[in-house]
Design goal:
The complex is a heterodimer. Chain A has 14 helices and 13 strands. By secondary structure, chain A is of the alpha/beta class. In chain A, helix 1 runs antiparallel to helix 12, helix 7 packs across helix 13 and helix 10 packs across helix 14. Chain B is mostly helical. At the A-B interface, helix 1, helix 6, helix 13 and helix 14 of A face helix 1, helix 2, helix 8, helix 10 and helix 11 of B.
């Protein structure tokens, strides 16, 4: 066997073995997520969430909403957050040095005045310019912090310093919450008896084309545009299958930055958000978990399969590319910061399973997929591999992709069934067949570019312009 | 070194070669693809079949509910047993009831409807609903559900027995209050309290599993709709080995202002569990007497930051001049939030407190340049 044959053999078998192992992991994820969702739905049928909304004994929560240049919608967004269904709450809006008139608009709309307010700086942040509270008792839950621009992580850390309550809920200011989202997110903290719950997260859904009235989602529609529609399927797959399975194994490494709850004390002890990474949401969870492991405190990160929060997905390839590029860089940075955990038995399931999974099947997957496709095409063209075998290999990968997506739709239908019309389900199934051909290659390419940008030490967040919801006022 | 590496690479290559030619053959790939396609088609067919059946089931449920609602409505407003019997034997309603005679799922629907209705009513309406429940011999159906192997069916049956006030089933439910299944156990505990009020809390003397915070909230909510008759066993619960029972007992003392248990709560201030200490601090501040503030100050050093801050906040309302020396000492604490809370307490206790603070500190330096305007602003 000459060297070229050996390289070919190594490469093609390696790709195949990698693919099969990935598929086996996905099967494991499906099995685990089904069991977890089934248990959750049964448990929920016995739950009266209103109990938590009205009880004076419900735990106190600080809702942190960082805002940067959000003047266009800030008044409505804050109104929507103030109307959230939870009594024992304070809303902290952090104006992260916006260049527009966000702060002035808030001052006028909510009758704010600057107040003396001691901030115990447990986490180092950029300076605070002022803290505002309302003269109107109607808005007594609102605190607005005006600070020097330092990025999302720095704004959230400022919020953590200002917060006085036991639990923190971090939210993107432009997200739309379900009526009982807070109740569902906080409940896991109260349920666990043997372990300390340090963070909880819920399913994020795509709000494009949905009807929004006065900051509330009133009707769910499947997005009309192709890209958001494909992301709808992608989110169902990721949240309903992936995260539920990891939650069951207590191996979850990420709670979405768009909406997640944390134990304030542990978040502070772990050092708060890291502003040196663009994946601050994932990094905080990994660091909090690491802190608990290192201090030998039994803990859990919970996940709820209920759709709790609706967000606008990028509708153009340009914005989507920037988002995925940033996600990739965030993942690399986080895994690099915590490389000590890689196959480290000291960190239990986190070190043995979660971290290696993220390295092999999240971080390396786009690179292997890209190089595998390019490499095998070259081998086929050079005659080292027969075209029928190449096409069979491609069909094998694609058919599993279709199956996995169809299975995610099946689970969605059997559980939360957000898209009531049968035509919507049919459209989702069509998307399942189109997505691997049109959407997935672009996502892989964006991830490859994310890797290149990481090597080039690019640190930018990337501008994320939004189109706005299908919003109405009544 | 190079030889070892070459030999290692060669071995790997041989393994891969073996796998490629024995497992990942073209035929195997082809068969797998066919299998995947079969699963895809079957899943899609199942999705639409499921949606179709779900729709049919929903339509039947709506039809049955519609038939039942007018009947239950009529039953609910009856004023005598004769009237009840008259409506029950009405041929129109008999045909409705006939549908609920034999099919288990339909009988369960009837039970659910009755249980839902019973949530909203009390008095004679409730009695009429119970009359119908007896007349249709639905208890047997619930007891049958209670023997089901699935925990959620058992839990549902317990819940419905409680809504329908089947007090003669208390002895059947009692063993479930310490069941290994957490949710079954929780429903049984709630059912017991729903049916017998404070007496239902007797399970706390036997429960060996932790009572979660969530469950405690549910129990408190359930108790809020009944009059507090007796908390006789609270002495025992405050000394329980089950820490969650101690915490719950402390909450009960706090909510129902059980001053008689002051000494037991006082003992809990020195408990080995910080969670119990925290609850004991909160509870004792709600049943406080003239010695409480000193007691809290005496325990202050042994607590974590969370409880210490709580104590400083409690002193803002319960403190007296006797605690001023302690509070002034806190003004030098390295944590600025302690300084803030202590200053607030001094201001509340003493009219001259602010002057005394200003004499001790540098009002222009941080954090006092923020704390002083803040406490003056609040005052």
């Amino acid at each position: 066997m000459n060297i070229t044959d050996a390289v070919f053999q190594f490469f093609s078998s390696g790709i195949l073995i990698y693919s099969v192992s990935l598929l086996l992991f996905y099967l494991l994820i499906v099995v685990y997520s089904i069991a977890e969702i089934k248990l959750y739905i049964r448990k929920s049928s016995f739950t009266d969430y209103n109990l938590l909304a009205s009880s004076v004994y419900a735990p106190s929560v600080s809702l942190l909403a960082p805002a940067y240049n959000e003047a266009a919608n800030i008044i409505e967004n804050v109104r929507s957050l103030l109307a959230v269904h939870y009594n024992n709450i304070e809303l902290i809006v952090i104006n992260d040095g916006s260049k527009d008139d966000s702060l002035q608009k808030l001052i006028e709309a909510y009758q704010l005045v600057k107040v003396p307010f001691l901030v115990n700086e447990k986490i180092k942040t950029k300076p605070i310019r002022g803290i505002y509270k309302s003269r109107n008792s109607l808005y007594h839950k609102l605190i607005v912090v005006d600070k020097v621009n330092g990025g999302k992580a720095d704004a959230l850390n400022t919020g953590i310093n200002v917060a006085s309550n036991k639990y923190l809920v971090c939210i993107d200011v432009d997200c739309i919450l379900e009526q009982d989202a807070m109740l569902k997110l906080i409940k896991p903290f109260l349920e666990e008896t043997n372990k300390q719950v340090i963070a909880t997260g819920g399913v994020i859904r795509i709000a494009n084309s949905c009807e929004v009235v006065n900051g509330k989602l009133v009707k769910v529609h499947l997005p009309k545009q192709l890209l958001p529609r494909m992301q709808t399927l992608e989110y169902i797959r990721a949240f309903l299958l992936g995260r539920m399975a990891w939650s069951r194994m207590n191996g979850l490494l990420i709670i979405s930055g768009a909406f997640g709850a944390f134990d304030r004390e542990i978040a502070i002890k772990a050092g708060g958000y890291n502003h040196a990474t663009v994946g601050e949401d994932m990094e905080l969870i990994v660091r909090m978990r690491r802190y608990m492991h290192e201090n030998k405190i039994p803990y859990k990160v919970s996940f709820i399969p209920d759709p709790l929060c609706w967000t606008e997905a990028p509708a153009s390839y340009k914005i989507l590319g920037r988002q995925r590029n940033r996600w990739t860089r965030g993942t690399i940075e986080t895994l690099q910061i915590h490389k000590k955990m890689f196959f480290n038995r000291r960190f239990g399931i986190l070190g043995i399973l979660s971290y290696p999974y993220w390295v092999f099947y999240e971080l390396l997957a786009p690179l292997i997929e890209f190089s595998g496709f390019v490499g095998l095409t070259i081998f086929a063209m050079a005659g080292y591999i027969s075209w029928p075998f190449f096409l069979l290999l491609l069909a094998f990968i694609l058919s599993f992709g279709f199956l996995y997506s169809v299975f995610a739709i099946l689970i969605e239908v059997l559980t939360f069934n957000q898209y009531k019309r049968r035509t919507d389900i049919f459209k989702l199934i069509l998307i399942a067949f189109a997505e691997p051909l049109f959407f997935h290659p672009f996502v892989v390419w964006s991830a490859v570019r994310g890797n290149l940008d990481f090597i080039r030490k690019k640190k930018s967040w990337g501008e994320m312009t939004r189109q706005g919801f299908n919003s109405k006022k009544k | 070194m190079l030889t070892i590496l070459t030999s290692f690479a060669s071995t790997i290559n041989e393994v891969l070669n073996y796998l490629l030619h024995h497992f990942f053959t073209q035929q195997m790939l082809f068969d797998t693809i066919i299998f995947f396609i079969f699963l895809i088609v079957a899943s899609i067919a199942f999705i639409f079949l499921y949606l179709f059946r779900k729709n049919k089931r929903w339509q039947r449920k709506v039809y049955l509910q519609k038939s039942l609602n007018s009947f239950i409505g009529e039953i609910a407003i009856c004023e005598s047993e004769d009237e009840l019997n008259e409506i029950f034997s009405n041929p129109d309603y008999q045909s409705v009831l006939l549908q609920f005679q034999h099919i288990g799922s339909d009988r369960n629907l009837l039970i659910s409807e009755l249980a839902e209705t019973s949530k909203k009513f009390r008095g004679s309406t409730m009695e009429n609903i119970l009359w119908l429940f007896e007349k249709m011999e639905l208890r047997n159906q619930l007891l049958k559900n209670l023997e089901n192997k699935k925990w959620h069916k058992k839990a549902k049956a317990i819940q419905q027995l409680a809504y329908l006030q089947q007090k003669n089933c208390v002895d059947i439910i009692l063993p479930f209050t310490n069941h290994e299944n957490e949710l079954l156990r929780a429903e049984a505990q709630i059912a017991l309290v729903k049916m017998t009020g404070f007496e239902g809390l007797e399970f706390l003397s036997k429960v060996t599993y932790p009572v979660s915070e969530w469950q405690q909230l549910r129990l408190i909510e359930e108790l809020s709709s009944t009059t507090c008759t007796s908390l006789g066993n609270i002495h025992e619960w405050l000394q329980s080995e089950n820490l969650s029972v101690v915490n719950f007992a402390l909450r009960l003392v706090e909510i129902y202002q059980q001053f008689d248990f002051y000494d037991e709560v006082k003992r809990c201030l020195s408990h080995s569990s910080m969670a119990v200490c925290k609850n004991a601090v909160l509870t004792i501040s709600n049943i406080s007497n003239e010695t409480t503030a000193d007691l809290l100050v005496a325990h202050f050093a042994g607590y974590d930051a969370f409880i210490q801050t709580k104590i400083l906040k409690i002193l803002q309302s319960d403190g007296t001049e006797a605690q001023l020396p302690f509070l002034f000492s806190i003004l030098n604490h390295p944590d600025d939030s302690y300084k803030l809370e202590a200053a607030k307490a001094i201001l509340k206790i003493s009219d001259t407190g602010i002057v005394a603070i200003e004499e001790l500190i540098d009002r222009n330096a941080f954090p006092w340049n923020v704390i002083l305007p803040q406490i003056k602003n609040v005052a």
